[in-house]
Amino acid sequence: MAYKDLQEFIQVLESEGELKRISVEVDPELEITEITDRVSKNYGPALLFEKVKGSDMPVLINAFGSEKRMALSLQVDKLDDLATEIMGLLEIADSVPQSLLDKVKVLPKLAQLSSFLPRMVKSGACQEVVDLNPSLDKIPVLKCWPEDAGRFITLPQVYTKDPESGKRNVGMYRLQVFDGQSTGMHWHTHHDGAENYRKNCQRGQATEVAVALGGDPAITYAGTAPLPKDIDELIFAGFIRKKPVELVKCKTVNLEVPADAEIVIEGYVDPYERRIEGPFGDHTGYYSLADEYPVFHVKCITHKKNAVYPTTIVGKPPQEDCYMALATERIFLPLLKLQLPEVVDMHLPMEGVFHNCVLVAIKKSFPGHARKIMSSLWGMGQMMFAKFIIVVDEDVNVQNVSEVMWKVFNNVDPRRDTMIVEGPLDVLDHSAPLPLIGSKMGIDATKKWMSEGHSREWPKDIVMSPEIKEMVSRRWSEYGFE
């Protein structure tokens, strides 16, 4: 059963013992961040700040900040459950039904797919209050870190349309509040929202934008998912929640937004105007540098009468964005395996903050196989940003970073087993000599074959015999252990 809105999710978090309410007044400038950072570093609960200085709206934060809460937000027992469902859908495309009976068997899955399409409704709770003389100052937007350039909206669903095809895009791009009626629009050049903006600029026209905050958490997550360009994020959200997303027409722009969002900010981005945005304490654990970005002008703000402001902080891991990345890792693994069936498992360790490090276990079949995997991954969507790709054999548990590092430190000859290439990097990578481009390293930590230039016998791992392990397990309590 899909969540109706964010507030229903809050109720579930509370019933599961995953939410702490804070009733004393707190300041959205730095204080909420310091509290949340301490809680997240100790793997604590979601936080609902009920009294926030300068605003009537409560603030929800750290709602995605554990593997359990991430699974709760997507209404699954384990994140891998969604991957299993995706595999079932992929079988439709992979196995075209031949007989009439096969076609009949596929019909329920096709009907299920069609039920994920978003649908329009006449009215929504997100428009209970309509403010045509809006001020962002009424929203308790956080200033997170001391050297941030100001207050930043950090958990938005940013809605735009392709001016050529009319296709919707939902992305998550931070918004620095400049004043009550304008923000920066931090569109990274590689993202689809930025492409829609560039197409509008070529026409000399403004880009209409709607920013939704809240709604079913599946919608928020869908805005972060690395979907292929032509896949509607709201269809993906419908697939996750097993129910179509209900949309209402915006009041001042030609866009649709989730009817049960908490807050909606409507406006436009001018094709010519740019302004310095940043610095901002980012998920890398460093301040991203100030740079010129487009400006978003606010025309209207609508919200629920009892709206809750959802937000997040980013910084040195672990933070809740690490668990959103974990969801992406598990959910999209089947799509990776579809293209690279030799991949056994993949892990994006939180120390790599999404894109800096990818650990991959493969079933090695031929000389140079690890290098083939590295090159393939760098050619796949947002994997192009991976600064380090480490490939290990199929028997290595890539979820155990220590085990992977043991293989790297012991299996790698640096000259033979590393590959350095030049290519695009994420704009947040401060180590690159130039913005957006630099070097990336692949490390082959698999066992080496003689056909790969290893002239000596490869040693065996030390492993105890199964009979002795079973016997010791059976007698464990006799030794005085619990």
UniProtKB/TrEMBL annotation:
GO molecular function, one term: 4-hydroxy-3-polyprenylbenzoate decarboxylase activity
Superkingdom assignment: Bacteria
Keywords, alphabetical: Aromatic hydrocarbons catabolism, Detoxification, Lyase
This enzyme's EC code(s): 4.1.1.61
Alphabetized Pfam families for the sequence: UbiD (PF01977), UbiD_C (PF20696), UbiD_N (PF20695)
Limits of the 3-octaprenyl-4-hydroxybenzoate carboxy-lyase-like N-terminal domain: 10-83
Residue intervals of the 3-octaprenyl-4-hydroxybenzoate carboxy-lyase-like Rift-related domain: 121-317
Keyword Lyase appears in the UniProt entry: yes
Presence of keyword Amino-acid biosynthesis: no
All residue ranges annotated as the 3-octaprenyl-4-hydroxybenzoate carboxy-lyase-like C-terminal domain in the record: 322-445
Segments crossing the lipid bilayer: none
Protein name: Phenolic acid decarboxylase
Organism: Syntrophomonas wolfei subsp. wolfei (strain DSM 2245B / Goettingen)
